[in-house]
Amino acid sequence: MDNTHIPPSNDSTTALSAGECLERFIATIARLRAPGGCPWDAEQTHASIARNMIEEAHEAVDAIHTGDVVALREELGDVLLQVVFQAQMATEAEEFTLAEVIDGINDKIIRRHPHVFGDEAAFAAAHFSPERIEQISKAQTAGQVLDLWDQMKLMEKEEKAARSIARGLPAPGLLDSVPHSLSALMQAQDISRKAVAAGFEWEDTQAVLKQLEQEIEEFRAEATGSFQAIEEFGDILFTLVNVARKEGIDAETALNVACDKFRRRWAIMEQYARDEGNSIESYPVEQQEAWWQAAKSQEVEPSDRRK
Asked: Distance between CA atoms of 305 and 302, rounded to whole angstroms?
């Protein structure tokens, strides 16, 4: 197998820059996809490995939550693999290159941070013409001049709509940018934030809680197991997400905390059962409840857990 075009691996005597390491990795992935490379890698498409992107991202987040920096370094590498692999397939199909991906996100960061890089750099990163820049400086909505951030977002939306129309597609709606591949809870958070940005909002938390009570009553009125019951239960969850948002709580994080707490308590209950030579499922619910309360009493306060 000819691998002479692949840069040598790093060792203790050679310190490669991040750019050099990336170039070496790109060459490695290209070799896997090239004739004489790996048959499995060569057969993959954007769609066939799409799920890997989600799985690797979740594993990276798990490493962050556990504070395991060694695992985080490895998992970030797996995430990078997905990015480079997808870009390599796109390069082969003449769709786009990894350089375009990197340049695009760099431009986006600059144009969205004019307070850091300056208006001139932000406008240049947005590739706005002098006419566009003049439009931005004069933009008004309801008699009030939009701030620079809103102007940038508005122009980006217009540019995306123009590209879609040019391709014969309908202009994207406000919620089209929320990926369906996100967990339902994360979708709900993103959807509600975008709706609020458009002015669709409750007055305060109490108003959301009142809405929650109404949704619960509507759920109770439906037949168990019916589609309507499922729909109404979804409304309860969606409204709860908005309660969290109003209180400055990330709903995904809150539910993860609850899941972790349940896991800890359940592990204690299982140990009680093992101490008696049995499995937890062999005990009646009354005993399980007693052990649950005992496990609950063993819980340390979050502030103590961090010590």
From this structure: 5
